[in-house]
């Protein structure tokens, strides 16, 4: 059979190992450091001094001293060291083999340690030291050889080149097996960290020899008969027993990486990929993280009963080498000089509150106060813990209720984009289990485990729920506990536990009738129970009122965005702040824990008492309770955080109260219009119905038609009856109560019913 030349690559691995050794020893980086020594008036400021360092040689010293256990090789450094880039290209095409070559090169460079173990040493270190001492005392005998994997106290990983392209899960195909690939996706499931055997130690019960068996796959068959020379000489066939303390176990974790929404083609469902993490790579990701994972794409055959059913089919997985978080937690964000400069300039800006609010979704015109509330939602208040352990939440919950077409869903999408952990879901497409947690079987351990839902994935983030009014009532009650206690209590399939769901809830809903009906009460338009409304810190009613000036500016804004694909200049000539800078500013602001002074506390108490006294005047738009008092405190502390202050002042409380009043502004504007009682409105309606096309009054009109029109306008039967009785001197009821006849109108001109 003729050989296929594409499978034979002219690579001399001995030469490659020498090139790797030269790279580890000679790769250098030139950095500049400020000159040492003080400057004097007679001597000018000294220039920075160029310093040459050998980063990988220094890391090898730390590995030898047992202070470093992870050696990460940046492929950009190898490309800079080898101008031909041949070595980098070979590593990317045959990563698994080159990991072994790097291990061999590092083992040759590391000096042998003779440090005496102490009480804090690893048990394996003690065993290896004792065996070396024992072998040194036995003269003329062959010392037992330890596998190289057993003596290594480090791991080698590759960091991909900065110019590498990230693929989706479905783009990684069979041609990528064995290659270094980078995959982008969202982590949906993370298993527990469990030990996995790398080298198993076996001892013979006859001759006492120690046998070390390397494990190169996820399954292995232990050796049963002793292969030592003593047992073969005596033909004793001693049995081998596993010695756990002398074996080497590494940390192992499996995660599921799922495609993002923008990577899924039309009509398809998201695909997922198994990713295996070892040693120092474990515990780097959490469910809900959007990450770039680089590693080796490898096949893994099915074992056991699955192999009988699968036949020749194998599964695939990604052996992770490098993890990059797309949106890091606020506490894990790395500071850069450019972002810190922007944060410092924003801190000095007296209008930082307004500027940041308008920088949220600048393509959406208006809604300044809504954006300010969303900014406070991102910042959050200070979470307090009392002396007896009771936790008072600091996260804000906001509900946007309004007419269609006021950009509620777009605001939710933008908040998900800004927040480091943002989960977007809809009410109709989410069940109670999908929001909280579900019980499933772990494919590795076959145990029943809990898989977190949307609210658990949004822990320490924001859960955006669109179409909140379309949710089933039984599913909606699942988030009651989350919104106040920020926990999820589960008791199913023998698992009784409490999960953390420290997430802010941002909900968007439409009124009960699709659009807000101003003729009906607020409680009839907002079809949400009072127990749920009281858990929202602030509820905005966004109405689409017709106004020539506002409609003109809105249309101009939308037309500008479509023509230029960018937002126009913000109102007040503010320059929009980009998303990364907003996220960095919020991360610095969240480090402050503002307290409430006594005079501010007294002011809040008086304001709350005033709100309670006005509760009946404001109809039932939002139930005023003790939770309202806590909402004011949370918004005030969030405003203090924006100022990087450690104390809340009166201006913060006034702004929090103003936002609560503004949330009801749409209703207030309707109530402040020309006041007309229902009786007068119904009279004008009957008068208009009695006129014909030429403006002449008809003598009679059907009461049934009047009643139908009045009820359709949102008035009640009592209002109609009161109008008939009030204006009884202008008409009279005739034809057995079916006609309304005007007094003084020519009876020859009647309406044709």
TrEMBL record:
Keyword terms: ATP-binding, Cell cycle, DNA replication, DNA-binding, Helicase, Hydrolase, Nucleotide-binding, Nucleus
GO BP of this protein: DNA replication initiation; DNA strand elongation involved in DNA replication; double-strand break repair via break-induced replication; premeiotic DNA replication
Enzyme Commission no: 3.6.4.12
Pfam family, one: MCM_lid
Entry GO terms, CC: DNA replication preinitiation complex; MCM complex; nuclear pre-replicative complex; nuclear replication fork
Reaction catalyzed: ATP + H2O = ADP + phosphate + H(+)
Keyword Nucleus: yes
GO molecular function, one term: hydrolase activity
Residue ranges constituting the MCM C-terminal AAA(+) ATPase domain according to the UniProt record: 352-558
Family indicated by similarity: Belongs to the MCM family.
Classification via PANTHER family: DNA REPLICATION LICENSING FACTOR MCM FAMILY MEMBER, DNA REPLICATION LICENSING FACTOR MCM7
Name of the featured protein: DNA replication licensing factor MCM7
Gene name per UniProt: MCM7
């Amino acid at each position: 059979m003729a050989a296929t030349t594409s499978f034979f690559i002219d690579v001399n691995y001995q030469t490659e190992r020498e090139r790797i050794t030269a790279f580890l020893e000679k790769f250098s980086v030139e950095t500049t450091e400020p000159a040492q020594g003080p400057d004097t008036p007679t001597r000018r400021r000294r220039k920075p001094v160029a310093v040459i360092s050998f980063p990988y040689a220094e890391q090898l010293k730390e590995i030898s001293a047992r202070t470093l256990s992870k050696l990460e090789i940046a492929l950009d450094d190898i490309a800079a060291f080898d101008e031909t880039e041949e070595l980098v290209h070979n590593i990317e095409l045959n990563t698994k083999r080159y990991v072994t070559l790097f291990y061999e090169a590092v083992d040759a460079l590391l000096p042998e340690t003779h440090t005496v173990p102490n009480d804090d040493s690893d048990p394996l270190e003690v065993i290896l030291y004792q065996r070396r001492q024992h072998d040194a005392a036995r003269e003329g005998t062959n010392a037992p050889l330890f596998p190289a994997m057993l003596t290594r106290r480090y791991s080698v990983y590759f960091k991909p080149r900065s110019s590498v392209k990230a693929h989706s899960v479905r783009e990684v195909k069979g041609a990528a097996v064995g290659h270094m690939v980078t995959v982008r996706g969202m982590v949906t499931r993370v298993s527990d960290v469990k030990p996995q055997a790398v080298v198993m130690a076996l001892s013979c019960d006859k001759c006492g020899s120690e046998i070390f068996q390397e494990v190169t796959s996820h399954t292995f068959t232990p050796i049963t008969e002793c292969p030592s020379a003593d047992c073969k000489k005596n033909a004793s066939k001693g049995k081998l027993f596993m010695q756990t303390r002398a074996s080497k176990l590494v940390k192992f974790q499996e995660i599921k990486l799922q495609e993002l929404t923008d990577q899924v083609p039309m009509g398809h469902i998201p695909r997922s990929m198994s990713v295996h993490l070892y040693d120092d790579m474990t515990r780097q990701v959490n469910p809900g993280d959007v990450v770039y994972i680089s590693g080796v794409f490898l096949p893994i055959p099915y074992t056991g009963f699955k192999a009988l059913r699968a036949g020749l089919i194998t599964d695939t997985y990604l052996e992770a080498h490098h993890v990059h978080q797309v949106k890091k937690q606020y506490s894990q964000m790395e500071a850069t000089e450019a972002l810190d400069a922007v944060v410092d300039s924003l801190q000095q800006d007296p209008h930082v509150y307004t500027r940041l609010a308008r920088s949220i979704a600048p393509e959406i015109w208006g809604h300044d106060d809504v954006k300010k509330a969303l900014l406070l939602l991102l910042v959050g208040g200070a979470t307090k813990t009392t002396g007896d352990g009771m936790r008072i939440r600091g996260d804000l919950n906001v509900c946007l209720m309004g007419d269609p077409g006021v950009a509620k869903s777009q605001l939710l999408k933008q908040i998900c984009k800004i927040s480091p952990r943002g989960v977007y879901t809809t009410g109709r497409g989410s069940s109670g289990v999908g929001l909280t947690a579900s019980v499933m079987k772990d494919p590795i351990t076959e145990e029943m485990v809990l898989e977190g839902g949307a609210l658990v994935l949004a822990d320490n983030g924001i859960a955006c729920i669109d179409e909140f009014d379309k949710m089933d009532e039984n599913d909606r009650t699942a988030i009651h506990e989350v919104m106040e206690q920020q926990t999820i209590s589960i008791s199913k399939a023998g698992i009784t536990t409490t999960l953390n769901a420290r997430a802010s809830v941002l909900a968007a809903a439409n009124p009960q009738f699709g659009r807000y009906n101003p003729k009906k009460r607020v409680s009839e338009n907002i079809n949400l129970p009072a127990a749920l409304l009281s858990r929202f810190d602030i509820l905005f009613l966004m109405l689409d009122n017709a106004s020539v000036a506002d409609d003109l500016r809105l249309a101009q804004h939308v037309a500008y965005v479509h023509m230029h694909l960018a937002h126009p200049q913000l109102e007040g000539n503010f320059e929009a702040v980009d998303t990364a800078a907003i996220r960095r500013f919020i991360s610095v602001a969240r480090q402050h824990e503002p307290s409430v002074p006594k005079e501010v506390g007294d002011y809040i108490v008086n304001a709350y008492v005033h709100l309670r006294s006005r509760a009946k005047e404001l109809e039932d738009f939002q139930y005023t309770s003790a939770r309202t008092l806590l909402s004011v405190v949370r918004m005030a502390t969030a405003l203090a955080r924006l100022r990087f202050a450690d104390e809340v002042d009166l201006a913060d409380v006034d702004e929090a109260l103003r936002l609560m009043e503004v949330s009801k502004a749409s209703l207030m504007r309707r109530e402040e219009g020309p006041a007309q009682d229902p009786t007068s409105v119904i009279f004008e309606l009957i008068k208009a119905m009695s006129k014909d096309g030429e403006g002449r009054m008809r003598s009679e009109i059907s009461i049934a038609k009047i009643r139908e029109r009045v009820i359709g306008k949102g008035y009640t039967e009592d209002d109609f009856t009161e109008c008939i009785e009030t204006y009884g001197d202008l008409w009279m009821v005739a034809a057995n109560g079916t006609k309304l006849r005007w007094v003084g109108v020519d009876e020859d001109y009647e309406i044709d019913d």
